[in-house]
User: Fold this.
Amino acid sequence: MEPGREEIVEFRFYEMPIGRYDLAFTGDDWKTTYRAGELHFHNYFEIGYCHEGEGIVYMGKDKPKYTGGMISLIPANFAHAADSIEGGVCFWEWLFVDVIGFLEECYKDEPQYKQQVLEKLTRAPLLISVEEYPALAGVIRAILEENRNPKSLSKEVVNGYLYIFVQELLRLNESIAYTNTEWNLHTDKIRAALIYVDMHYSEEIKIEQLAEVCNISVPYFRKLFVKCMKVTPLEYVNIVRIQKACGFLLKEDIPVNLLAWKVGFTSVSTFERNFKKVVGETPKQWKLKGMGEKEYVTYQTKVLKGWTK
Assistant:
């Protein structure tokens, strides 16, 4: 990316297979030259496994170098990108995990513990080496292999691996020494608000509530949130609501007025205006387009322009 250049960050939405918490992109199709101009964020937790090649990963203000034998761990809604060295071809395989859905299934009777686990798992984006974390790497490889060559009871086997993945990632988060950069320290202070929005998006959400769950004042919370996320708290709430709406549109034949209410908007006009702002199309246009496409990766969110600056 050119210094000082403003970016439009793409919202890349993926539909999770029915009854699954994992979605994998594997094989030779992912041997390519990656360019960081494609800065983006996802509606699910992203795991990238680099088999070969080298380059840079853009994660917030950090730009760590990667080589073959490294893994990226990116929470949902974090802007990021991978950049190959000039002229270089890299081989990444990708795994997306519905962490919130999986934790709800695992800890349905322990909501407080579930939230604690979620906060730890989404603390910050990470780039780790396979050699340094062999147990976690082994679980990720096993899930990727199960997706490449599914056998009987595949869903049950992957769910077992996902449970181990969660525990290994918790171990990693407990042991790793996070760099106390200004960005990490500030992001930690608003993490509870990000999780609150994902769990209560269908309800009325006020900035006072978000500041309260973070135990900081409203003015300080607003300042920190914009500093970390480069959007206001309200804009972020609407982005999450639109993500949820996309999921419902793909799975249900639901009238727009009911969908608007279901994802937390008080009027159809406000819902449609925000949907087009984030996705670039009306809900009806997006649904019709999505029905004919295998992947949903081309939607730009104008409200995130300048996120990387």
Summary: The radius of gyration is 19 Å. The chain has two domains: 10-175, 182-281.
